[in-house]
Amino acid sequence: MSNVAKDVIKKEMILLQQDAKTKEEVLHYLVETAAENQLITAQQPFLEAVLNRESEVPTAIGYQIAIPHGKSSTVSAPFIGFLQTKEDFIWTQGHEEEVKLIFLIGVPLENENNIHLKFISQLSKKLLDETFRAQLLAITDVNQAYELLSSITI
Amino acid sequence: MKVVAVTACPTGVAHTYMAQEAIEKECRKRGYEVKVETQGSMGIENELEQEEVDAADIVILAVAIGIDGEERFEEKMDAGKVLQVDPGEVIKRPVETIDEAEKL
């Protein structure tokens, strides 16, 4: 497993089989977990950055996936959080898109380490791979999910 | 068929690269030659030379922000060979996007 993957994805940021049914619940939980793991220095400004981005264009990209993201000075290094829900739910009221796999992406205002961003872009691309998506939908074990996500090569 | 494209989105961490992947994947499936320039948080990558743009049958600009070097596509725009589309749309509907571009 590459060090880059270890930097960007923490096992603690993989939340599977969640009951959440709204964007707010999901984001709140992911952001809270990010703060507990020292990935962000403050919850509120980061959450606002993410919600602002959502209000421009919601980040449900189809394929039962949403990729909310925020660029904020509260982020110390680029990270990804992954939350999988038990049931599909509508990501943004008024839009048809239903999601089950949510990837929260956090990036600092100043990007100093491109290798982390490279990893995030590679993971994003991989989401268009049907087999990879099927694995993510079926997975129930955090360790397996961690292995799968960190298997991405840059 | 030769396709060139530029992808760019506001944050430049995910959509830009997913749109690139979506375009490349669909074009390869159809046996087309394809090159996609990305303008994201990692700067400009896979930059398109003027000659490559000139040689293309179709240009796809999957951009949600202003891009650098837009003048490279002026001639193609005048010729009606440029499809402007939202990156999110390309990611969601790659088949339809390339279909639409082909009709230009």
TrEMBL record, chain A:
The superkingdom of the source organism is: Bacteria
**Residues covered by the PTS EIIA type-2 domain:** 7-152
Signal peptide positions are: none
The protein's GO terms of the molecular function aspect are: protein-N(PI)-phosphohistidine-sugar phosphotransferase activity
Read off the Pfam families from this record.
Answer: PTS_EIIA_2
Which Gene3D superfamilies does the annotation name? Mannitol-specific EII, Chain A
One term under GO cellular component: membrane
Concerning SUPFAM superfamilies, the annotation shows: Phoshotransferase/anion transport protein
What InterPro entries has UniProt attached to this entry?
Answer: PTrfase/Anion_transptr, PTS_EIIA_type-2_dom, PTS_IIA_fruc, PTS_SugarTrans_NitroReg
Keywords, in A-Z order: Phosphoprotein, Phosphotransferase system, Sugar transport, Transferase, Transport
An example GO biological process term is: phosphoenolpyruvate-dependent sugar phosphotransferase system
Q: Return the PANTHER family for the record.
A: PTS SYSTEM FRUCTOSE-LIKE EIIA COMPONENT, PTS SYSTEM FRUCTOSE-LIKE EIIA COMPONENT-RELATED
Q: How is this protein named in the record?
A: PTS system IIA component, Fru family
Per the UniProt record, the source organism is Isobaculum melis
Automatic annotation (TrEMBL), chain B:
- Gene Ontology MF: a single term: protein-phosphocysteine-sugar phosphotransferase activity
Q: Which PROSITE patterns match?
A: PTS_EIIB_TYPE_2 (PS51099)
For the biological process aspect of GO, one term held by this record is: phosphoenolpyruvate-dependent sugar phosphotransferase system
Q: Which UniProt keywords apply?
A: Kinase, Phosphoprotein, Phosphotransferase system, Sugar transport, Transferase, Transport
Signal peptide (UniProt feature, chain positions): none
A cellular component term, taken from the record's GO annotations: plasma membrane
Instruction: Tell me where in this chain the PTS EIIB type-2 domain is found.
Output: 1-103
Can you name this protein?
A: PTS system IIB component, Fru family
